[in-house]
Design brief:
The complex is a heterodimer of chains A (164) and B (284).
Chain A (H helix, E strand, L loop, with lengths): L1 E6 L2 E6 L6 H8 L18 E4 L2 E4 L12 E3 L1 H8 L8 H8 L9 H14 L5 H7 L11 H13 L8
Parallel strand pairs in A: 1-5
Antiparallel strand pairs in A: 1-2, 3-4, 3-5
Chain B lengths: L6 E3 L4 H9 L4 E4 L5 H6 L7 E4 L9 E3 L3 E5 L4 H6 L1 H6 L1 H7 L5 H6 L2 H7 L6 H7 L3 E6 L2 E5 L1 H4 E3 L2 E2 L6 E8 L5 E8 L9 E10 L2 E10 L6 E2 L1 H7 L6 H8 L16 H19 L3
Parallel strand pairs in B: 1-3, 2-3
Antiparallel strand pairs in B: 4-5, 5-10, 6-7, 6-10, 8-9, 11-12, 12-13, 13-14
Helix pairs in contact in B: 10-11, 11-12
Classes of the chains: A alpha+beta (164), B alpha+beta (284).
The structure holds flavin-adenine dinucleotide (FAD) and FE2/S2 (inorganic) cluster (2 copies).
The site of one FE2/S2 (inorganic) cluster has 12 residues of chain A, from loops.
């Protein structure tokens, strides 16, 4: 089936099997290996990307269902909304500064879920951050620094600053 | 894990979707895919054709239909939590939808999919049962309306005939004096209910004039706690009276025993959670 997608601002025209999952398309056809597969059972959130601006688990969407849509992966985040000397997205910078990762496997999904969270609610409480990230599992950090990083990014930007 | 091969079509109307389903016995509908795609990946299902409802705009959104709301089958859980009409007239649905899974799943999963999937642990079946909603179904023979009691048949089984699509859910507006609460017990984040209780209560003069209770995961289909409803009607609106009425919550239920909880424990939870839900619904 023919599909057209905009991934991190770049247009892709392709012919894919209907059973191809979006995450496999991103990784194997579009070079977005920054989007990992964690559980394959829709539970861990590692594969989270933004589909038309909203967080989704890309292992639970068919590529053909995303036809015509725009996708943001971790690899497009800095490009679409980088700032400052390092050129990073404010959430990337906050995860770095607050040590919001150890092995880093959950981080791309965590950050994209957090982008969505801050778009919905630019000034969340700690509890709202924990609720908003409940679909993203981390085996390393114990979440404390992740929550701290998201709160820091929220504090360091105006609402518009975290748009993807 | 990669699903087995299938064909895919995204029709633009209910009529075309029904025709596509009629042409292939092994075809299956896909809406948000949040229940179906995990099943396909595990190869628990082998449809030959997926009929994606995603292109049918008439199935989207919430409409004011006088004394009821007409909720399109493709309305997502996320939209249920955000819709102003639902907030004003069927807040129970918004509250319960907000407890489903996590934000990413709620962005994709739909009310039509959640009801058609008929998981006994799913939250929305008990909620629409308590709300006395009507399910509107369209198939090759035209449209029909079904009550929740006639729609949910068994574990993961509805009375939808082959080729039929759930097109909308009609929810009567809650009038003045009604309060509501969905009480869900789950030990970890982003988890299914071990037991859930959807409670509605109408208060008048310090008493509960009328109560409606739907139970999640207390049997293979959602159930109404009729004995609680009878005991609550006319009772004083107090936490003590609501707790007393809730002692009947497990009457007539047949909860499962599984890895997450024994049937006895579920019975206990049903009584405790119903007391809490009813008290909140009655505003005490
Ligand atoms: C990690 C995770 C956690 C979850 N936690 C919860 C939870 O706590 N509570 C809860 O209630 N649910 C939970 N769910 C399930 C979620 O609510 C699903 O969104 C819902 O069950 C299915 O909706 P869908 O639109 O994605 O349906 P799909 O997956 O597309 O379809 C599900 C089934 O319904 C059929 N179908 C879909 N739409 C129609 C229609 N309009 N007419 C006829 N048949 C149709 C399909 O053929 C399929 O058999 C969870 C899911 C995941 C992945
Ligand atoms: S890989 Fe998609 S949710 Fe875990
Ligand atoms: S940093 Fe290792 S899984 Fe989160």
């Amino acid at each position: 089936m023919k599909i057209t997608l905009t991934i991190d601002g770049v247009r892709y025209d392709d012919d894919v099997e209907p059973r191809l999952l979006l995450v496999h398309y991103l990784r194997e056809h579009a070079g977005r290996t920054g989007t990992p597969i964690g559980c394959d059972t829709s539970n861990c959130g590692a594969c989270t990307v933004l589909l038309n601006g909203k967080s989704v688990k890309s292992c639970s969407v068919l590529a053909v269902q995303a036809d015509g849509a725009s996708v943001t992966t971790i690899q497009g985040l800095a490009a679409s909304n980088g700032s400052g000397e390092d050129g990073w997205h404010p959430l990337q910078r906050a995860f770095h500064e607050e040590h919001g990762l150890q092995c880093g496997y959950c981080t791309p999904g965590m950050i994209l879920a957090a982008v969505d969270l801050l778009n919905e609610n630019p000034n969340p409480t700690e509890e709202q951050v924990r609720d908003g990230l409940e679909g993203n599992l981390c085996r390393c950090t114990g979440y404390q620094n992740i929550v701290r990083a998201v709160l820091k990014a929220a504090g360091s930007t105006t609402g518009a600053g975290v748009q993807a | 894990m990669i699903p087995a091969s299938f064909d895919y079509t995204r029709p633009g109307s209910v009529e075309a979707a029904v025709a596509a389903l009629a042409a292939d016995e092994e075809a299956k509908v896909i809406a948000g895919g949040q229940s179906l795609l995990p099943l396909l990946r595990l190869r628990f299902a082998y449809p030959t054709l997926l009929v994606d409802l995603g292109g049918i705009s008439e199935l989207r959104g919430v409409r004011d239909a006088g004394d009821a709301l007409e909720i399109g089958a493709l309305t997502t859980h996320y939209e249920l939590t955000r819709d102003p009409l639902i907030a004003a007239h069927a807040g129970l649905l918004a509250q319960a939808a907000g407890t489903i899974a996590d934000p990413a799943v709620r962005h994709r999963g739909t009310i039509g999919g959640a009801l058609s999937h008929a998981d006994p642990a799913g939250d929305l079946p008990a909620v629409i049962t308590a709300l006395d909603a009507v399910l509107v179904v369209t198939g090759p023979g035209g449209s029909r309306e079904v009550s929740p009691g006639d729609f949910f048949a068994d574990y993961l089984t509805t009375t939808l005939a082959p080729g039929e699509i759930l097109t909308s859910v009609r929810v009567p507006k809650l009038g003045d004096g009604w309060g509501y609460h969905y009480e869900k017990f789950h030990p970890t984040a982003q988890a299914w209910a071990i037991v859930g209780v959807a409670a509605l209560a109408r208060r008048s003069n310090g008493h509960v004039a009328e109560a409606r209770i739907g139970l999640t995961n207390m049997g293979s289909t959602p159930v109404r706690a009729g004995a609680v409803e009878a005991a609550a009607a006319g009772a004083e609106a107090s936490a003590t009276a609501m707790r007393a009425a809730a002692q009947h919550a497990d009457q007539g239920t047949s909860p499962p025993s599984d890895l997450r909880a024994a049937a006895d424990y579920r019975r206990h939870l049903a009584r405790v959670l119903t007391g809490r839900a009813l008290a909140k619904a009655a505003g005490v």
